[in-house]
Amino acid sequence: MIVDLRSTGGAAIALAAVPVDSVGAEERAAFFAKRSVKQQSKLDLLYLAIRMMDLTTLEGADTPARVRQMCNKARQPAAPALTEALSKIAGFRPIPAVAAVCVYPLLVPHAVKALQGSGVHVASVATSFPSGQTSLATRLVDVHEAVDAGADEIDMVINRGAFLAGEYQQVFDEIAAVRDACGAAHLKVILETGELGSLDRVRLASDLAIAAGAHFIKTSTGKIQPAATPPVTLVMLQAIADHYRKTGERIGMKPAGGIRTAKQAIAYLCMLYETLGSAWMTPDLYRFGASALLNDVLRQIFKQYTGRYYYDKGYSLD
Amino acid sequence: MTEYLATTHASKPAPAAGFVLDYAPSIESHKIVQIPARHELFIGGKWTPPTAGRYFASVNPATDEVLSQIADADAADVDAAVRAARSAYERRWSKLSGRERGRYLFRIARLIQERSRELAVLESIDNGKPIRESRDVDLPLVAAHFFYYAGWADKLDYAVPGRKVAPLGVAGQVIPWNFPLLMAAWKIAPALACGNTVVLKPAEQTPLTALKLMEIFEEAGLPPGVVNLVTGAGAAGAALVSHPLVSKVAFTGSTEVGKTIARSLAGTGKRLTLELGGKSAHIVFEDAAIDQAVEGVVNGIYFNQGHVCCAGSRLLLEESVSALFLDKLQARMRQLRVGNPLDKNTDIGAINSKPELEKIRRLIELGKSEGAHYFEPENTRLPDKGNFLRPCYFSDVAASHTVSRVEVFGPVLAISTFRTPAEAVAKANDTPYGLAAGIWSEKGSKIHKVAAGLRAGVIWANTYNQFDPSSPFGGYGESGFGREGGRHGLLAYLEVQA
Fold it and tell me: Is the pTM of this model over 0.90?
């Protein structure tokens, strides 16, 4: 199938649908969990995972205080007592800050203030997250407000209704419009793969989002199950690889939701490394959308240094 | 810095200051395995020294170190083993009910599962295959084979509807070094289920897991003489297949030896099945899921160092996707890790022996001199010692090139292109072999049409190297005859009465 599109400037874009064999993709995706990462390699990946993390809170019950608490965790992932315990270890490297916090637009100002000078980015889910079921005008207002409030990364959702109805031009135009509205902010396009129904569609949606100007493509909102899975992530990485082959342009990737353990994160990073290579092993091109993951990574870092686990209450909850 | 991907775009981006992930060695402990300094023959349930007192060395192909001294059986030893098997057949095994035979086989299958880690480590040490493969592929299949044929043992009356069946007698089985334990299971399980007794001769390069299997048979209480094992080289194999008390010969190995056996058995009335070499083709159409096809092709040829009789050693690419496919294949090959078979991160282990390594190298040189385009991943690191080889391919091969005709039995892929389905089928069939084939297309009707035209015993669509004990396996032409696995696999070990 060829999807014929017109860019905002009117240029014709022919997007060839790339078929995906789901059995093969699942088998390959499962392989990376068999990589056995140990010693220094493991420690390096755990540190990298922290630097790639988008610490996220997206609840109806979110409050400025809750966001401030999370921002504190984002700046300084290890609680002071844990930091002190760690700093006594020979060769210990300080725990880095995470990549970004990800909040609703109304909470962006609080995050911006709390993170001033930290280098931690503020991402916001705009575009009537998580369903996206409002008019484009409303969604663009959402984006403008988030950007104006200081968000430098926008996580948008695609219009799944339009996508599943085959209205690819509409989906394309909306992504392009959001990209335009982002200005200097980086755009992550959420495909909500759990609602797309097949890996073929995941691939098509990835190609569509990239063609429309996504800086990053992202699996999920976290509100729909399944969220990020290894096969979905692999297929999206392959779309990124093919785009790089054709254009030399590097698109970023963000699996989000469902990644809770350091072990999972390591398997995802092995997949990234073996699919796209070392150039993508940076927070500029890969993020984890997660909240529970951070403490498990810290737990494993402590274990890696000392051979034992720090007591469970030593990790702060935020 | 590890870059797998190439970009065809004019303005190449500056290489990013990337992160190098160098998997630290993750070595499976070999402490679980005790390898005795010397191994005797297993005849009539007893560990028996060879009459001539000769031994040969079994070598670890990854380190060149000697693992153990192995008894070298001569004709007298083989005779003793066959007589023990005949006696066990007449007195005991053929008289047991199917259900009782099944009980032994179930017990053996469970013991194999219990000791699978030990067996997997030993297999990787003796054979050179990556522990990931022996652990995740070989051993589960070995146990599954015994389980499967255990289930048949009391149902043989239904194997051939309307006919009575009977066992044949003593089966003389000669197996190769590429899947030592799995081939032993493929041979022994159906033979025993059908009521035959066995004399097994494992390959001289890789006898250790078969010897360990005899320990498991002892532990399972299998009656003495039901399975006997003679170790040795070609002479022992020849003595076994020509022994007058052997009723059935099953051989897996090279086409050359298979032909010799077929000639020597002509007119003797012995039953024979041969599972020989191959030069199997992958056919990749432009409408295939290319990323998954690349994965399947890599698995098809680089699995087990290419020491696979059904290896997809020829790749036929539809011209319109050949450039993209080769680009992706190269990127994928740069990720393959060659090294210590016991490292859990090793993708390609050691070539099984020095002579085999030299043979493959000779064929690679021949391929280069015949003019095909050669590629090997430049970044692949090889260990300093042991028998290691980079995975490689030849593209632009002609059907007349040696690398597209002879079985290399190593990590060497021969690639050519085609324009139409008919041309693909003609090229795939342009071989004296006919063991397996792979078809890659997302179009079902095309897969069925092409499959119907292929002369191969096993045809996989959108996958490769899938094995299951319930599925028959075997070839056409110079790939041999007879089927192993499934209900078909029983027929090789049964007399079907009128």
Answer: yes
B62, B350 Cβ separation under 8 angstroms: yes
Residue A277 and residue B18: Cβ atoms within 8 Å? yes
The tokens for A14 are: 């022919």
CB neighbour list of residue B480: distance below 8 Å, 6 or more residues apart: B255, B258, B273, B274, B275, B276, B435, B474
| Region B38-276+477-496: CATH code | 3.40.605.10
**Are the Cβ atoms of B287 and A19 closer than 8 angstroms?**
yes
- Does residue B192 register a pLDDT over 60? yes
ipTM: 0.94
Q: For A256-287, what is each residue's pLDDT tens digit? A: 999 999 999 999 999 999 999 999 999 999 99
Task: Read off φ and ψ for residue B250, nearest 5 degrees.
Answer: -125, 125
Q: What is the CATH number of domain B281-461?
A: 3.40.309.10
How far apart CA A191 and CA A158 sit, in angstroms, is: 6
CB pairs under 8 A between A and B: 122
Of B3, B132, B293, which has the smallest distance from its Cβ to A277's Cβ? B3
A75 contacts A115 by C-beta, under 8 angstroms: yes
For A279, the closest of B3, B24, B290 (CB atoms) is B3
Q: Using an 8 Å CB-CB cutoff, list residues of chain B that contact chain A.
A: 1-13, 15-16, 18-26, 132, 136, 287-293, 295-296, 327, 331, 335, 344-345, 442, 462-463
For the segment A90-143, what is each residue's pLDDT rounded down to a tens digit?
889 999 999 999 999 999 999 999 999 999 999 999 999 999 999 999 999 999
Distance from the A183 Cα atom to the nearest Cα atom in chain B, whole angstroms: 23
Question: Given CB atoms, is A84 within the 8 Å cutoff of chain B?
Answer: no
What are residue B413's DSSP bridge partners?
B393
Neighboring chain A residues of B15 at a CB cutoff of 8 Å: 279
Identify which of A36, A244, A285 has the shortest CB distance to residue B5. A244
Is residue A89 classed exposed, middle or buried when 0-12, 13-18 and 19+ CB atoms within 10 A define those classes? Answer: exposed
Cα–Cα distance, B288 to B42 (Å, whole number) = 51
Question: Residue B274's beta-bridge partner residues?
Answer: B251, B481
- Residue ranges of alpha helices (H) inside B335-440 are 354-369, 421-428
Domains of chain A as residue ranges with CATH: 2-314 (3.20.20.70)
For chain B, the structural domain boundaries read: 38-276+477-496, 281-461
* Beta-strand pair A153-157/A121-125: parallel
Which residue from A146, A185, A202, A172 is spatially nearest to A26, judged by alpha carbons? Answer: A202
